[in-house]
Each structure stands twice: as C-alpha cells, then as structure tokens.
Write a structure and sequence with these properties.
CATH topology: Rossmann fold
Helix content: 40-55%
Number of strands: 10
Largest sheet: 6 strands, mixed
Radius of gyration: 19 Å
Number of domains: 1
Strand order of the largest sheet: 6-7-8-3-9-10
Bound molecules: adenosine-5'-triphosphate
Strand content: 15-25%
CATH architecture: 3-Layer(aba) Sandwich
Oligomer: single chain
Structural class: alpha/beta
Distance between the termini: 20 Å
CATH superfamily: P-loop containing nucleotide triphosphate hydrolases
Order of helices and strands: EEEHEEHEHHHEHEHEEHHH
C-alpha cells in the first residue's frame, strides 16, 4: 500500500507538489498522468525516499519513507525513466549485487534471476558489460533488477521509453500479473494508452495538484468528455487551467479544492 499525506514540495518559490493526498491499496495498478512539469517525477522521488518533502509524508507498506527508510525501501522497487546502472558490471553481476542488497540468498537470486532473464529475453546480454547495451535492453535490465526481490510496491517512471512493441508488451504483462498477485504498481506515463489499458485507477496531476482520481469511467464522467482517455485528459487539464486562471492557485487552495 502507498499513502501520500498532504505532500508538499517547494523548490524556492516554486511549489512542485501542492498538498497531494492519496492512498493506493495493495495490488492496485495506479497510473499517474499530467502535463510536463506537473510534479509527477517529484512525487515519485519523494515516494521513493530520494528527496525530502517540504511537509507531509509518504508511506510504503505503512512505513514513512523519511522516518523509517530501511523498512520502506525493503518493500519498494523504483525504476526511474533513466535508470542508474553500474556500467562496468555485467547484467548478471548487477542482478547478484541487487539481490544481495536485499539480503536474498544466492540460490534464490539464481532461480528468480533466471526466470526473469528468460521472461525478458535477456539471455544473449546477461554476461556482457552493461555499458555496451542498448537503451531498451538497459531498461529491461533495470526492470528485472527491480523485480528480483519481489517488492510489495513497484514505482516506475515512463516504463515504455525505449522499449520495442514486443518488450513493451512483456513489461505490461509482467506488471499486470504481479499486481493481480498483490504487488502495488505506481506508474507515471505520458502514454495515455498504457494508463487506459493497464490502470485500475488513474490520477491526473496538474501544476502540483492532484486534480482528478478515479477509474477510467469515473474520470470520463467527471470530465464531461466522451471518447478515449485523451479527450478526458485534455478536458480535465483544460478545465483546471481555466479555474487557475479565473481564481488563482491560492484561491483554489483557500476554497479547499481537493489536491
Ligand atoms: N531539483 C529541482 N530544483 C528546482 N526545481 C525542480 C527540481 N526538480 C523539479 N523541479 C521543478 O518542479 C516542477 C515539477 O517537475 P517534475 O519533474 O516533477 O515534473 P513532471 O510532471 O515529472 O514533468 P515531465 O512530464 O516533464 O517529466 C518543474 O517545474 C521542475 O522544473
């Protein structure tokens, strides 16, 4: 389970995350959408414990990521849009290193690693140094290393960037299977089709605020727009932009607009 409680992040005068509260229950596949600079990555970085919120808190499996970082991180996997990998290691060495960080037994690393390597078609690459791998292959290595310890919560920023259609399908299938088995997925994307196909619920962030949360159908009703998620997304973000222009962001907060 993920809990974001009155999360605020300011960078100087800029409020990148503006009082976001949200609960994502165990096993839910949650997609977060939003225009550029809306605050998605900042929210994800706070959730992953990489940056500190100005106020409010983020919990993973009941543990505050700031006050109980080790407990929270044990339950969490985070794949950024441009993952950091140890380039001089081979993919297999990197998997063993990651598994050991999560205190997995060597035997377990071998068994789970082999399953994932096969599933993600990584056999031809696992004994080569990571520095020579293509972007899409590196992305698959990052996803495998994040899934290795069987996390309770899987956070991923732009998962399909650089993946060919076949491997995008593999990633979608594996994440959906894991979420059906109880893993909570929190995914940020600009690919509306991914959210539309995969997510149980979708959240839309606009200028740091969570302006809408719900199932695909609930968001469609809220937007008043018919058709694909693209129309819903454009209608909701345009309505919010108009509201901000009419009332100003401070008045919206004063009116108690749900963040
Ligand atoms: N370290 C930082 N210092 C100053 N401003 C920052 C920092 N990190 C993010 N920001 C600002 O916070 C705002 C939100 O950025 P964020 O990366 O969270 O947006 P995003 O929704 O992920 O955008 P995109 O879809 O373009 O990736 C932006 O205005 C960004 O410039």
């Amino acid at each position: 389970m993920i809990e974001l409680i009155h999360l605020i992040k300011k960078f100087g005068d800029l409020t990148a995350v503006n009082d976001i509260s949200l609960t994502v229950p165990r096993g839910e596949f949650f997609a977060v959408l939003g225009p550029n600079a809306a605050g998605k990555t900042t929210t994800i970085k706070i959730l992953s414990g990489l940056i500190k919120p100005t106020s409010g808190c983020a919990r993973v499996g009941g543990f505050d990521v700031q006050t109980h970082p080790l407990e929270a991180r044990r339950k969490l996997a985070y794949v950024p849009d441009f993952p950091f990998l140890y380039d001089k290691l081979t993919a297999w060495e990197f998997f063993r290193f990651t598994g050991q960080l999560f205190q997995m037994h060597d035997e377990r690393i071998e068994i789970v690693g082999r399953e994932l390597i096969t599933r993600f078609n990584l056999e031809p690459f696992v004994n080569k140094p990571i520095e020579g791998l293509s972007h899409g292959t590196r992305q698959r290595v990052a996803i495998v290393s994040a899934l290795l310890h069987d996390p309770e919560v899987f956070v991923i920023d732009e998962p399909m960037v650089g993946l060919d259609p076949h491997h995008a399908r593999v990633v979608k299938d594996v994440l959906k299977e894991r979420s059906l088995a109880g893993m909570t997925v929190f995914l940020s994307t600009h690919q509306l089709s991914v959210a539309e196909e995969m997510a149980d619920r979708i959240g839309i962030i606009h200028q740091g605020r969570l302006i809408a949360v719900g199932t695909r159908e609930e968001l469609r009703r809220q937007s008043g727009a018919s058709g694909a998620l693209e129309q819903t997304f454009l209608a909701l973000t345009a309505q919010e932009a108009n509201l901000v222009e009419e009332k100003g962001p401070d008045k919206l907060s004063a009116l108690g607009r749900k963040a």
